[in-house]
């Protein structure tokens, strides 16, 4: 029997790409966090639900951007305890779970406030809404420009880029609501846009929540068919059987796999390990693979009990 074969090159490259563009995440985080405070205060002072709903969305994005910053830092941090055998990569996933709770909380709050305004005629400071909405749009466009350069190389930066795209949509909604309130004199438009933003945020939160649960439940990575991966391993020269295959996502952009490969007695197991590891990295983008090679003359192989 041969020992495990491990592929680290893809994970190391991903971490390196994230580190190169960490400054982009830092600038975007600073801009979004500062504007979140401004928009939250403006929403409370102006009475605009649209501003409050967009501020809640930004709060979740501050958490997401912060998680991306943390992820690029801890990706190369050595474990000093000796107990974190998978490192601290899951910190990003837990932070995403917190963002989901924040987004759902904001959506529920806005929905309750909106229903509470039925039949009422609240005074909305449309001028404040318009000014803050335009500033928010400018801030988001600057953040988009900063993140675009690294989105093609780093998955962390790409995720942050998509979050800011969604923020930009929210800022446009605030500007539209302010213009409609000024043009018609009706605060109803503020409530309508707020509900639309809240629904948009809730839908995104549910989608992100499903991704978080998929990772924590150690399901097969999205877009990867375990049966296809098993067949591909079976086609590696020298492999006669594949069993005990497990594949899951450790954190975004870092898929992990383990498998037992059976070869004929006398075959070169090291060649099989090299070919299988290379195939998993290049074809399925698996960042870390642990493969165990067995021969057909073994009387017993004890795999997982479940």
TrEMBL record:
Q: Which residues form the Cation efflux protein transmembrane domain?
A: 27-216
**Membrane topology classification:** Multi-pass membrane protein
Which residue spans traverse the membrane? 25-49, 55-72, 93-112, 124-147, 159-181, 187-206
Q: Where in the cell is it found?
A: Membrane
Keyword Ion transport appears in the UniProt entry: yes
What the entry lists under InterPro entries is as follows: Cation_efflux (IPR002524), Cation_efflux_CTD (IPR027470), Cation_efflux_CTD_sf (IPR036837), Cation_efflux_TM (IPR058533), Cation_efflux_TMD_sf (IPR027469), CDF/SLC30A (IPR050681)
Where in the numbering of this chain does the Cation efflux protein cytoplasmic domain appear? Answer: 225-294
| UniProtKB keywords | Ion transport, Membrane, Transmembrane, Transmembrane helix, Transport
Q: Which Pfam families match?
A: Cation_efflux (PF01545), ZT_dimer (PF16916)
- Family matches, as PANTHER family: CATION EFFLUX PROTEIN/ ZINC TRANSPORTER, RE54080P-RELATED
Give the protein family. Answer: Belongs to the cation diffusion facilitator (CDF) transporter (TC 2.A.4) family. SLC30A subfamily.
What name does the UniProt record give this protein?
A: Cation diffusion facilitator family transporter
């Amino acid at each position: 029997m041969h020992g495990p074969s491990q592929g680290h090159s893809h994970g190391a490259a991903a971490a390196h790409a994230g580190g190169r563009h960490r400054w982009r995440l830092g600038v975007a985080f600073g801009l979004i966090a500062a504007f979140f405070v401004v928009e939250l205060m403006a929403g409370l002072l102006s009475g605009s639900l649209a501003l409050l709903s967009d501020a809640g969305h930004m709060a979740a994005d501050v958490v997401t951007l912060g998680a991306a910053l943390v992820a690029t830092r801890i990706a190369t941090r050595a474990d000093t305890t000796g107990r974190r055998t998978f490192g601290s990569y899951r910190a990003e996933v837990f932070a995403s779970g917190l963002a989901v709770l924040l987004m759902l909380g904001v959506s529920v709050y806005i929905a309750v406030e909106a229903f509470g305004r039925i039949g009422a005629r609240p005074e909305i400071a449309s001028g404040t809404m318009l000014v803050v909405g335009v500033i928010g749009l400018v801030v988001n466009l600057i953040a988009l420009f900063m993140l675009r350069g690294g989105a093609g190389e780093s998955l962390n930066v790409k995720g942050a880029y998509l979050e800011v795209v969604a923020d930009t949509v929210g800022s446009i909604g605030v500007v539209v609501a302010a213009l409609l309130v000024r043009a018609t004199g009706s605060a109803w438009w503020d409530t309508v846009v707020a509900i639309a933003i809240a629904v948009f945020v809730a839908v995104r939160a549910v989608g992100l929540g499903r991704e978080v649960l998929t990772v924590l439940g150690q399901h097969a990575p999205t877009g990867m068919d375990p049966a296809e991966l098993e067949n591909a391993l079976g086609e590696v020269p020298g492999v006669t059987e594949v069993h005990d295959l497990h594949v899951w996502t450790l954190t975004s952009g870092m898929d992990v796999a383990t498998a037992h490969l059976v070869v004929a007695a006398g075959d070169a197991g090291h060649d099989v390990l090299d070919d299988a590891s290379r195939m998993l990295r290049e074809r399925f983008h698996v960042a870390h693979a642990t493969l165990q090679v067995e021969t057909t003359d073994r009387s017993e192989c004890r795999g997982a009990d479940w």
